[in-house]
Amino acid sequence: MDRQEAEQYLYYAMNIGELLLENGAEVGRVEDTVRRICLAGGAERADVFSITSNMSASIYGKEFGSCTQTRRVLNTVNDFHKLEELNCLSRKICEEGMTFEEMDAEIEKIRKEPGYSFWWLVFDYALVSGSFCVFFGGNVRDMIVSALIGVLLKFLMTFMQKTAANHLFNALICSAVGGFLANLAVFASLADHADMISIGNIMLLIPGVAFTNSLRDMFSGDTITGLIRFMESILLAVIIALGFNIAGFYFR
Amino acid sequence: MKEIIQLLMAGAGSLGFAILYNIRGKKLWVIAIGGIAAWGVYLLTQQLTGNDYASSFTACVALTLYAEVMAIIFKTPVTVFLVSVAIPLIPGAPLYRAMNSLMHGNVEAFAREGTYAFLFAASMAAGITLTTLVFRTMRAKRYHRRHL
């Protein structure tokens, strides 16, 4: 492997790492996957460091010296289907090896893989809102209203994601609308408990998973990532509480 | 009766989040059953111990074992099952209530709910991390290092 090939190989390894981070893998696993791929490709030494928004890797080999690459990772979503596919790909690369063209094609294929269709997700928002509404003690009327607001929130969120880029602002608008509609439904006596309706919608928006995962990160030694996630989730939770309260203050 | 409805809703919530995370096929049903079981273990231990943190720890130990076993059967990363099955336990509501109290200037309620959310999440994280470590150590001969 000469210098140019090593750079190219690292580039593809970084592509896989970047996709993993973008689709919600834990940093420990991202580091491990990139390191394994690099070592399998003939590097004698591979040092990978990653936090949620950035990843850097250096590899060293006698024939090609040392190469370093860095990636900035902007937005992350949780897409576990892609995670599985990337896991299969990295195993295949480690066990059998692959040409650059093959790797490129496989990575592009995974990147382009579609998720559930829009209408499935609309149904899903209703499912999550409705079930958590009852889970926390709402009645059937609350559940129906909560599910309907969930559907509206999905439409609103899709629209907001196309216009504004800031996810905190999106969350503020979505939660303000959600809180307003919940209060309006109780005001028009369509449902009985505004807080029970809202809790179903809140579960969709509140970063509870990120909050728990941030502590998991810290427990397993990725302290920086844990702290970043912790602060992000607290900030988002404050914004969401503010949003749901705006309407409550007006309806008093 | 109330508990049975809550259990079913825990399963539906897990299923809903699994769809949100783009999980497909049979795994969805495995996750829904896991969500019900996780909340069931939580309720049972809560009856026995009367302590929420101990219950969430125990429930997380159980659900991590479930997720690890299912990950071996389906040959997928553990995260796929772990995060979705844990959904009913995730302290989203206390986290919201804490910030809500802060918003109303009720510092006492903020301290109470905030501590609850933090300790609940911490005991979950402890349960998950501990079980993962033990499980990996026991299977160390097959798993050389942690792999996705």
List keywords for this structure.
heterodimer, A: mainly alpha, 2 domains, 3-stranded antiparallel sheet, elongated, B: 148 residues, 6 helices
Could you characterize what this model shows?
Chain A has 252 residues and is mainly alpha-helical. In chain A, 71% of the residues lie in helices and 9% in strands. Chain A has a three-stranded antiparallel sheet with strand order 1-2-3, with helices on one face. In chain B, α3 runs antiparallel to α4, α3 packs parallel to α6 and α5 packs antiparallel against α6. Chain B has one domain. Chain B is built from six helices and no strands. Chain B is mainly alpha-helical. The N and C termini of chain B lie far apart (40 Å). Chains A and B meet through α2, α3, α5, α8 and α9 of A and α1, α4, α5 and α6 of B.
Helices and strands, with pairings:
The complex is a heterodimer of chains A (252) and B (148).
Chain A: H1 3-22, H2 27-40, E1 45-51, E2 54-61, E3 65-72, H3 80-96, H4 100-112, H5 118-135, H6 140-163, H7 167-187, H8 194-205, H9 208-219, H10 223-250
Antiparallel strand pairs in A: 1-2, 2-3
Chain B: H1 2-20, H2 27-49, H3 52-74, H4 78-85, H5 92-103, H6 107-138
Helix pairs in contact in B: 1-2, 2-3, 3-4, 3-6, 5-6
